[in-house]
Specification:
The chain is of the alpha/beta class. The protein has helices spanning about 10-15, 20-25, 45, 60, 70-80, 95-105, 140-150, 195-205, 220-230, 240-250, 260-270, 280-285, 305-315; strands at about 1-5, 30-40, 50-55, 85-90, 105-115, 130, 180, 210-215, 235, 255-260, 275, 295. The protein has 13 helices and 12 strands. The longest helix is centred in the N-terminal third of the chain and has 14 residues, at about 70-80.
Length: about 325
């Protein structure tokens, strides 16, 4: 059996989709499992040993340059690569018009959410088989239920993300135990106040645990550097690839992060994780896994430093 999973973005959503690969491998040990994903997130499915071919798509980049001849050449090349394979099932776990259009280009029985189960109901018209999945379930569970329905099995209760990473041996990492602070996110209203990060970092430093602060763009790096300067022993990490960041997380005592995909990566790697929510409800898309993890806060809420420290203490007990 050959299966194509279509889950293109975003980072957290792609991570949430990893357990479906483990499920498929459990129920169909000999299956070939390919994945279609945005080029900027292709490193995530590569972490799973059961993923075969990765079809990288560039919808985010292409739609900004639709008048460029190069864009149309790339789109044609992508379609040719995609159609070079014939699949038994093509399963769109994203449920958006853009992912439905991609699914329609693939050769095979196309499966996806029914119109009553997705945010963009028109996407269901691209599928040969449609399945109603509870909209109140967590995103990880919805992905797993959809793929199980398409392939005829019932997933086990506990998700297995199926990924692992060796602890990083970077020369700049602190010699003491450390926690990873994931301070950056896509929206300002999702940020945790800097004075809270400072207090948390100082408290952990007194307990013999340093803080490591990764960052992506220039604004995030400036914030990480600013915080690290005011937390004794803290380190603002240099630019890291997804694979390198996975290694940093793998060596951490714990991770504390805002509503961002990297916080979900920490949970997928079974790192004790405390997730902080200030503007969104973690009920449907909060961190979710089988290792120690906690979701604190919610819409218009501000998790306290004391609450984070209490959860970190519980993780170490």
């Amino acid at each position: 059996m050959r299966i194509l999973i279509v889950k293109t973005s975003s980072l957290g959503d792609v991570i949430h989709n990893l357990p479906v690969v483990s499920d498929i491998r459990q129920h169909f040990p000999g299956a070939d499992i390919d994945w279609c994903v945005e080029e900027s997130f292709a490193a995530i499915p590569r972490l799973h040993p059961s993923v075969g071919a990765i079809h990288a798509v560039a919808v985010r980049r292409w739609r900004k340059h639709l008048l460029d001849w190069q864009t149309w050449r790339e789109m044609a090349a992508f379609r040719k690569r995609l159609q070079a394979c014939r699949y038994d099932r093509v399963i769109d776990t994203q449920g958006l018009l853009k992912s439905g259009l991609i699914t329609a280009q693939a050769i095979g029985v196309r499966c996806g959410y029914a119109a009553d189960s997705i945010r963009e109901p028109l996407a269901s018209r691209f599928y040969d088989q449609r399945f109603s999945i509870p909209t109140t379930a967590h995103a990880v569970t919805r992905n797993r239920l959809l793929v199980g329905a398409a392939l005829g099995y019932t997933p086990d209760p506990n998700p297995d993300y199926g990924i692992a990473a060796a602890p990083g041996s970077f020369h700049w990492l602190p010699p003491t135990p450390y926690a990873v602070f994931l301070t950056a996110t896509s929206r300002d209203d999702k940020l945790w106040p800097e004075d809270c990060w400072l207090e948390l970092g100082r408290q952990l430093q007194r307990q013999g645990c340093a803080a490591v602060l990764p960052a992506g763009n220039a604004l995030e790096r400036a914030r990480a550097a600013r915080l690290a300067e005011s937390i004794p022993g803290a380190i603002a990490a240099p630019p890291l690839s997804i694979a390198e960041l996975a290694g940093v997380l793998a060596g951490a005592r714990a991770a504390v992060g805002v509503d961002t995909g990297l916080t979900h990566l920490a949970v997928a790697l079974k790192i004790p994780t405390v997730a902080l929510y200030t503007a969104t409800d973690p009920g449907l898309t909060g961190v979710f896994g089988i290792g120690f993890h906690r979701n604190l806060g919610g819409k218009a809420q501000l998790p306290s430093v004391a609450a984070v420290l209490a959860e970190l203490q519980a993780a170490g007990d």
